[in-house]
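Record type: ASSEMBLY
Status: queued
Input:
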Amino acid sequence: MKLLRVVASYFKNCRDNFMIDLISKSKRTSEDKEYELHEIDEGLYVYNTVAFVGKNASGKTTAVELLDCCYSILGEFRVENKTYQYDHVTLDIIFYHEGMIYRYFTKLEADASLENKAVFTDQHIFQKKYYKSRSKSVYDERDFKEMEDLGSLPEDTSIVFFVLKKKQTRALYFDSEGKGASTYQLLFKALRNYKISTEVLADIIHIFDENICGLQMVDDNNYKLLYKAEQKIVSDTELVHLLSSGTTKGILLYTMAAASLQMGFDLIIDEIENHFHKTLVENLISFYKDKMVNRNKAALLFTTHYCEVLDLFNRRDNIWISKSKEKVYLENMYENFDIRTELLKSNQFNSNAFDTAVNYEELMNLKRKLME
Amino acid sequence: MKYLIMCEGPNELEIVKILLENDLLLFDKDELLNLIPYHARQIDKSPAVQLALNIYPGEVTVLRIGDGLTEKLRIPNKYKDKIIAVEKYCTKPELEMLLIIAENLLDEYNKVKSAKKPKVFAKEHIQCGHQKYDNSTRFYELYFGRNPLLLAASIKEYKRKHGSHKKEERYLADLLK
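Status: finished
Output:
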C-alpha cells in the first residue's frame, strides 16, 4: 500500500482542498530513479523523501499531521488520540494497493463519547486497475468504480478495512516534543514488534554514545546499561538524564527508521533538525535514498527549518513550502515557483525566493523596544 | 581513505554492483564511501554523492567509470581538500563492447564498426533467454548477474584487445583482482 494523494477540507486551520500529492511530477532522470524515487508499479513513481519547509506557524506541522491522519486510517482504520478537532473534516485519499488504485472519501466527526476518537460518516470508496499506459491519469475520476455492498462496521472504523483487511503499521509519526521517560518503553516495544535485533540497537546507541555497548530492559521502568567495563541498572527517568534527552530522542528515532527501512513503512518527522546533529540528519536521509538500504520502498517525510537539507534533494517536486494567510496552504517548489535550477536551493531559500524569510521589520521592532 | 565510485550511467552502476557483490574487485564495500557505488556524472549535480561526502570526514579518491568520460569532473570548493585524486576507467566506445566480447562477436563487430555503434550492433545480435538487448539495466542484471565470471573475463579481454586508451584513461580490468 502506498499513499498517493490526499485532499482535505476543514482540517485544522487549512484552506479548503488542502492537497499533498506524492506522485512524481517533473522529469525523471536515471539518477532520480536510483536515488529519489520508488517505482511502486510499472511507470508509477513516488518519492523516497519529502520535505515541508516554511516560516514558524506557517503550517508545516499541520501538513505532516494530515499525512499521519491518513496513515492512521490506512493502517489502523481509525483516527484517535490526535491533538486536533475531527468535526467536519473531509478527506479524499487516493492510495495504491496490489495493482489497484483506490479513492476513499470520508467525513470525520468527533465521537459522541468522552473518548478522543473520530467517527467516519459519508464514506465512499472507488477503485480502478492501474495500467502503465494510464500512469499520467492516475487521478482521473472517470474510470473509478464505486465499491458497493461492503458490509457494516462500527462507526469509528473506516471502510478502508474492506480493502486492506489487516491492521498494519503504514507510517510512524514523530512530533517535535519527544516522549521523555516513556521513550525507552516505546523503544523496546518497537524492537519486539518490528523484530529489530539487539545488534542493530547496539550500533544505533554507539552512534550517539561511543562508551555504551548495549542496553537491556530489566522491567517496564528499569534498564541495564552496558559500558565496556561496567553495567548499571537505572530507571527510565535516570536513563534520560544519563544519556541526555537529545540522545534519547535520537536513539528512538534511529530505531524507528531502522524499523521503517526493514518493514517498508513510512516515517514522518516533525522538525527533523530538532532531534540530532546535522551529519545524523544527512545520514538518515541518505539511508532512504539508498536502494541497498531502503529495499522495501519506505519513505521519509519531514518538516524542517534547516534549508541546507533541501540541497540534498535532486528534485523540486518533493519539496513543499507552507504558507499562512489567515488559513494555511502549501506551494510546491516545482509547480508554483519558477526558479533557476542551477542555484542551490538553500541559497534561494535564504534570498527569500519562496517568501519564507522572517519579517525583518518585526525583528527590528523588537530590537528597538529592547534598546529603549 | 575511501573510494567514491561514480558511474556515468545506470548500466555501468549495475556492472560495478555485480563485480562488487561477487568479490571480483580489488576492494570491498567497506572501502567504498558510504559502502556503495554511485550513478553520478558530476558531484555538484548529485545530492546523493554530496550526502556521502558530507558524512565521511576523511580523504576520498574518486573512481569515474563510463564510456569515454570526456566531460571534466568539477570538484566543488568545499570538497577540494577532501578529494585527493580522480581516476578515469573507460569502456570506449560504449559499454556494450563487454556484451559483444562476452558473445564472441568481436570479430564480426569489427567488420562493421565504422558504420555501426556497439549499442546498435548489440540490439541486433544479442539476447538473453527470450529478451533482446534493449539498453536496459535489467538486461545487464540478467545477462551478467548470473554469470559474473563471464563479466570479469570480458572486461579483461576488452583490455587485451583495446590497447589504445589514452594515458589517463585506465581500464575496468585494472580494478579487477
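Annotation: The two ends of chain A are 59 Å apart (CA to CA).
Annotation: Chain A touches chain B through 17 residues (CB under 8 Å).
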